[in-house]
Design goal:
Layout lengths: L9 H23 L4 H6 L4 H8 L1 E14 L5 H4 L15 E11 L6 E13 L9 E13 L10 E10 L27 E14 L2 E8 L4 H7 L7 E11 L2 E12 L5 E4 L5 E4 L4 E12 L1 E3 L2 E16 L10 E18 L2 E13 L17 E14 L2 E12 L10 H6 L9 E11 L1
Helix pairs in contact: 1-3
Length: 440
Amino acid sequence: MTNFKKCRSFNCLLFLIFLPLLFLIHSAQATEKTVAKEDVLEAPKNSILEKAISKCKVSGSLQTYVKTQDSYYTPLDHAFHVRDGANFREDQNFRTRFKLNLSYGRPSEEWFGYAQIDLDVNDPDEEDNNGSDNNFDLDSFFLMYRPFKIKGGRPIGIKLGIIPIKATANAAYSHSFAGDIEGDFIFYTATGLPEVPGIDIDFHISKDTGFGYAFANGVDDASEITTLVSSESTQNHVIWAEAKKWGFGFNGAIQFVEGEFNPSRAHSTPGGNTFYSYQDSTKHIVANTLLSYRFDIGNLGFMPVIGYEMVKGEQNAINALFSTTRDVKWENYQVGLNVFTNFFDMPGKFAILYTKSETDDIDDGLTESVYPLAGLDNDLHVEYWLKLRKNIRAGVFYYKLNSKDVHISSSAPAALQAAGPSTFEWTDTQSFGMYVRLSF
């Protein structure tokens, strides 16, 4: 998902201590065990190191794309500068992305560590508005501790660091459309929190059924675009749940967010200086849920899904156009179908998802309209992939985004009338192509 995410510089420092820290944890656990003196004498000197290294795993993927897409107009280019290459999409036919995963242990064990490095080799949405650049990001980076072992499992987990909160993303329980690398067809992932600094506490009765609470200093697309909040300013309390039983699947999350756009709390020093910090000047909620049901007929598996996303609350006042704090609301309604195939002993998956976007028209400026999204109507995702070999996947895709007209009445505030409907205009775009993913 291409959005307002920023690479935090201290992640690089954390990365340097990641493996040594895990090694020390493992070493401490190993030395607590009581062993016979003769066993100590006979044990290899590097046995502890070997055990620690054996728990470390390196994996990753290299994915290349070829596609044809219509160039399009969006406020996310001209106003927000997060789709700066949107007007050149027709000339961006080839893309490459590399991900490297480093892990220690397994998520079900007492200690688990994980880091993901993401290299977008030719990101076209850099702010030069006419070109591409290498975009290096250290995505997730966290340690997880499961302290209690009950009946062979560890139901309670504590995750700390740059964490993903899976239940906030409906796509994680349905289908992630790999060909939408730029995030131009944005609805279905808008509420997800794939990487935020925070802590997450979970309780699971099985691998796929549990609930939890997370506290994070960050939000993602849905909050930043709709409420004009700065992610760095936010205090985000998240309650989430997931379940899977008898073929039925469920996930849901509610985010309670407080924050603002610019730091507004003034502090005076004894020397006469003034500095500013963030305060919780506006509040909003972000909610999402998805229901699914999986059933099989012969060699085919079917999983229809229905989902919902919502952002509702206060939008920040940041300039003449958004001059006052006002209430806004944006909703997405999703319906889709996943079909699992196995032709010629090659596993595959067909996925289709339709999303309808809803927010008030701008009209007189007194509605709950999210101005930058008022010109969006719906989008469609279609994708099919086959696993050609154990570590090679090939897929084809077609995506379509449809816009609608924006209306501003003569009774709207002067700044809004001066901006005019063209400021919030979207145009249609569609993309089709293929990708190949090599995993290791």
